[in-house]
Amino acid sequence: MPIRFFVLVFLGLLWSQYSKAGEPVVFRDSSKLMQIGASLELYSDSSNKLTINDIIKQRFLPSGQEVPNLQISAFTNWAKFSIKNETDVNRLLLEVEYPTIDEITLYEALPGGGYKTVALGQLKPFKERPYNHQNYIFPLEIPKGETREFYFEVRAGEQAQLPVYLGVETTMNFKNTERNFIFGLYIGIILVMALYNLFIYISIRDTSYLYYVGYIICVGLTQASQQGYTFRFLWPNNTWFATHDTLLIPIFNGITAAIFIQSFLHTREKYKVGHTILTAVVVAYLLCLIPTFLDQHLIANMMTQMTAMSASLLAIFVGIKVSLKGFIPARYFLVAWGIFLTSVVVFVMRNFNVLPYNDFTYYALQVGSAAEVTLLSFALANKINIYRKEKEESQAMALLVSQENEQLVREQNIILEAKVQERTEELQTSNKELNKVLTNLKEAQTQLVESEKMASLGQLTAGIAHEINNPINFVTSNIKPLKLDFEDLKGLLKKYEELGPNGNIEEQLKEIDRYKQQIDIEYVHTEIDSLIKGIEDGANRTAEIVKGLRTFSRLDESDLKSVDIHEGINSTLVLLRNTMPKNVTVIQDFGELPKIECYAGKLNQVFLNIINNALNAIKMKPVQGDEKLTITTRLMENKQVSIGIRDTGIGMTDKVKERIFEPFFTTKDVGEGTGLGLSIVFSIIEKHQGKILVESTPGIGTEFIIYLPQNVPSTQSYMS
Fold first, then answer.
1. Looking at the predicted structure, is the pLDDT value of residue 7 above 70?
2. pLDDT tens digits, 545-574
3. Backbone CA torsion sign across 545, 546, 549, 552
4. CA-only gyration radius of the chain, Å
5. Is the full-model pTM beyond 0.70?
6. Greatest CA span in the chain, whole angstroms?
7. Residues 384-401: pLDDT tens digits?
8. Dihedral sign, CA of 171, 174, 175, 180?
9. What is the 3-state secondary structure (H, E, C) of 351-390?
């Protein structure tokens, strides 16, 4: 009994649904719009060949939905319905609020037989529409009390729905005006955000803002194409673009979104795997263009929707990964992207009739995308504060170092201003005090430079002592055996002196021979030669080191001299020989150079600083191999000399490279460096009217390239 009861109830509901679909739509109130989707009956023509005369013989099924969903289908869909007019208005309007349908034709059964047809769609120029509107609006002439039967023939290359409204012109215009006004607000937000971020890009030249402008424009165009505004206002006569823009624009929207996310989240530095994932998303979107241009709409739609769904989830995944690394802008992105995806879910659920077709679901995507671009614009604006903070931090060290000098100058200026105001008659005295302050500052500068010189020479002291100690030890060790050999020779000479006529000469000579054999006179001669040669070599080596030190220091050359650059480089290498690691090979690629005019001692100080820094950079490498120090000299065509010093050390980042010539800037630990070495190098090269360039790659090495003129201009003077 219960089973039979439920069967009867089910059949009753089914019959009521069929009977409702078969009944005409009764239009009674001209002040309201009617949504008549539930009264439609549907039929799918899988052959795509049936005509209206064939269709009237087919069996239609009730839609059962307020907004019938035709899904993504390659078939022709037909809708059947009847309208009975019980108002005093004879002219009604029928609107299909889904502007991306390729072809939609309305067939009206005439009382005398035959059909009146009105064909619209994106495959026809916009100017052929009876009403200047992006939606499909059909005028109906139904006298009061009469009933007319209608058929829709629909072909669409993408997801299609049939939100059908029935009403008079005033109510229809009111609804559409409201829709246009709200969409105008949305486009206004999009344009404001685009212009705002474009202005910021022009101001600070950060490409993140330019990528975001492109993304915002694509977001706005995507919504405009979905609402039919692009066909109406941008390309009303281009039917090919009208049927393809709902694919092309979302594809470029996805591409710009992926590129912007890479730039905004700094995935190249923060999360390289995520950067690769987003690059793959760009490639996937580009592949969607292939079926699009081949007019394979069904395949293109499926590929684009699958790519968009996957890309959305991957973007959330990458955003979470970057956020976990402590990158604050990633949190803005997750909130904005989450709001946008929520609106997309609402839009998709509406398309599949999970949610009703109403104002909330209609405007969800516009509200979500507007909120997203606004939040991301705020996040990008916050980057300006980040840039400002980084700049302030980078300047903090220089400000701290120069604070005392600036305070001193400021105090002196205050004192001078007070004295000028109070006692103009003591102006000369004040000037003398100011000159004294300037002299003190110059003396302080000179002391700093001399301190750096002493620090450099201090590093050489141990090496020079070791280098000189080796030959001296060799000389010292040869003196004792040489003394013993001389004692043997003196003993031999004494025996020769004892020869005399009073003794037995023959016996004495035999005694001398025995003594010679005892001391091995031939070995003594050989050993004396060897020991003297060793002493001579040690003396020569000591002289070479002293000469190298003298060549390096050039204490007797305070004026400009014409010198051989190669001598200075070689003397520097001699002094640094003891500090050079055993795994470092020095390559001297010297060209033919003339003597150049320079301050030789100062220039040798340049070589010492740069080569010593190169050796330190090599020592700091965590993994040591066969390292190289390459010194190259060349004569340039513009009568300049170039000296290149390249190492295979740890290299420098761009941020460090920009600051290496600043006074007191150092990457060494506290107490290990003054930060003045390269500042003095830069000053010396500048005084020679030359220039110095730096090329460096982290983990690969660094090269300093010095360019010097052959002759320093006579007006140039060098201050120590």
1. no
2. 666 666 555 544 556 888 888 988 888 888
3. negative
4. 47
5. no
6. 177
7. 666 566 566 656 655 665
8. positive
9. HCCCCCCCHHHHHHHHHHHHHHHHHHHHHHHHHHHHHHHH
What DSSP line would sit under 382-413, residue for residue?
HHHHHHHHHHHHHHHHHHHHHHHHHHHHHHHH
Nearest to 45 by CA among 62, 59, 30, 31: 59
Instruction: Provide the CA 281 distance to its chain's centre, in angstroms.
Output: 18
Q: Which residue in 182, 100, 85, 186 sits closest to 135, CA to CA?
A: 100
Mean pLDDT of 365-383: 78
**Going by C-beta distance under 8 Å and a sequence separation of 6 or more, which residues neighbour residue 494?**
none
Residue 625 CA to residue 303 CA, distance in Å, equals: 52
Counts of helices then strands in the chain (DSSP H, E): 18, 20
CA pair distance 115, 257, nearest whole angstrom: 49
Question: What does each C-alpha distance from 39 to 9, 46, 53, 66, 96 come to in angstroms?
Answer: 22, 23, 22, 8, 14
Sequence-distant (6+) residues with CB within 8 A of 235 are 241, 242, 245
Helix axes of 427-497 and 677-687: crossing angle, nearest 10 degrees: 100
Instruction: Provide φ and ψ at 67, rounded to 5°.
Output: -125, 100
pLDDT tens digits for range 62-107: 988 888 988 888 899 999 999 999 999 999 999 999 998 999 999 9
The amino acid sitting at 318 is V
DSSP string, 482-534: HHHHHHHHHHHHHHHHT--TTS-HHHHHHHHHHHHHHHTHHHHHHHHHHHHHH
Question: Using an 8 Å Cβ cutoff, are 149 and 25 in contact?
Answer: no
- Taking alpha carbons only, the member of 40, 36, 37 closest to residue 18 is 40
In whole angstroms, give the CA distance from residue 191 to residue 213: 9
CA 353 to each of CA 33, 64, 605, 612: distance values in angstroms, whole numbers, following the listed order: 21, 11, 82, 75
Angle in degrees, 0-180, between the axes of helices 359-422 and 427-497, rounded to the nearest 10: 90
pLDDT category of residue 2 using cuts at 50, 70 and 90: very low
81 - beta bridge partners? 150
